[in-house]
Design goal:
Blueprint (H helix, E strand, L loop, with lengths): L2 E7 L2 E8 L4 E5 L6 E2 L10 E6 L2 E6 L6 E3 L2 E3 L1 E3 L5 E4 L2 E6 L9 E7 L5 E5 L1 H8 L8 E5 L8 E4 L4 E5 L6 E2 L10 E5 L4 E5 L7 E3 L2 E2 L2 E3 L5 E4 L2 E7 L8
Parallel strand pairs: 3-4, 16-17
Antiparallel strand pairs: 1-2, 1-11, 3-5, 5-6, 6-9, 7-8, 7-10, 10-11, 12-13, 14-15, 14-24, 16-18, 18-19, 19-22, 20-21, 20-23, 23-24
Length: 241
């Protein structure tokens, strides 16, 4: 697994790094960091990049000024190709392979009404990625009601659960600017993975934080565009159904 990092300051490229085989890369001011940024606005050990279960994961190391990805402060973030990591006045532009399952995401040539390109989804490819063992894993959502509606339970019964404006979506979303597919939940033999597949990657928040690609955990609070829902592991109770 090869990744590239480009160090940028005020639009000017300062350095380029490429790592072909690594378990952990430290980023910071200290001389023992694999990616060294000699500036007082950067902590000695500011953040780290690790390989984990096929993902490339960024972790803040309790830095003084925080670690940001695409303008959002993060503690832990699954890196995606094109992400921009900001540390003080410096930026690291990340290039890397797609995370597991991303080959099932196809970019459409058609624009949405707001002019943005939309990432479309090939459910068959994602279903093949999930595999047969996925049927052993159970999970469901509790959809927050609107107005006088009651909370609704959405059981994740298929390997791929779609959220968007598409008529076949498992959670139908509304709005003139809503893409056909906004987010995808992929069920595999270990659990559930949520992907924001919009071009801008700003349609999904998990526990208040913008997330492009995240493993769901029990009791996670989600917001997908203007709909709020809660994820729970296991089958719904009779009271929830």
């Amino acid at each position: 697994m090869s990744i590239k990092l480009t160090l940028v300051l005020s639009g000017r490229t300062l350095d380029r790094f490429e790592f072909d085989d690594f378990a952990r890369l430290r980023v910071g001011r200290s001389e023992d960091c694999e990616v060294r940024i000699d500036n007082l606005g950067v902590s000695r050990h500011h953040c780290e990049i690790v390989r984990q279960e096929g993902f490339v994961v960024l972790r803040d190391l309790q830095s003084n000024n925080g670690t940001f990805v695409n303008g959002t402060k993060v503690e832990v973030h699954n890196l995606n190709d094109g992400d921009v990591i900001t540390l003080g006045k410096y930026s690291l532009e990340y290039q890397g392979p797609p995370p597991p399952g991303a080959r099932g995401l196809l970019v459409s040539e058609a624009s949405e009404p707001d002019g943005a390109m939309t990432v479309q989804v090939d459910p068959a490819s994602l279903a093949r990625m999930a595999g047969g063992k996925a049927t052993r894993v159970r999970g469901h959502f509790i959809l927050e009601p609107r107005g006088k509606d009651k909370p609704r339970t959405l059981v994740i019964e298929k390997p791929v659960f779609l959220m968007g404006k598409d008529p076949d979506a498992d959670l139908r979303l509304e709005g003139w600017f809503c893409p056909r597919v906004v987010a995808v939940v992929v069920r595999d033999d270990t659990g559930f993975r949520l992907l924001d597949v919009t071009e801008r990657g700003d349609a999904v928040r998990v526990n208040g934080m913008k997330r492009r690609d995240v493993r769901l955990t029990d009791q996670d609070d989600l917001q997908v565009r203007d709909r709020r829902l809660r994820f729970l592991r296991g089958s719904p109770n009779a009271a929830d159904a």
